[in-house]
Input
Amino acid sequence: RFALVRGLGDVYKRQGYTIHNYITSKRLLMSRSLISQGMPVMKAAQASGFHDYTTFVRAYKKQFGKAPSCE
Output
């Protein structure tokens, strides 16, 4: 099992991602989709797996260049 995870990590690194960055990116894309469908920002953050709102907003701004409340 460890070899599989390590192998996946190497694949993502070659593409410029870590596994953590890839998962965070997917969660942020999910939250953006939920917000665009009318879900409140706080609920979208929680539904996407973010337990800390400040961490969510910081990551969202970093990925999309604006606050989630501006969507």
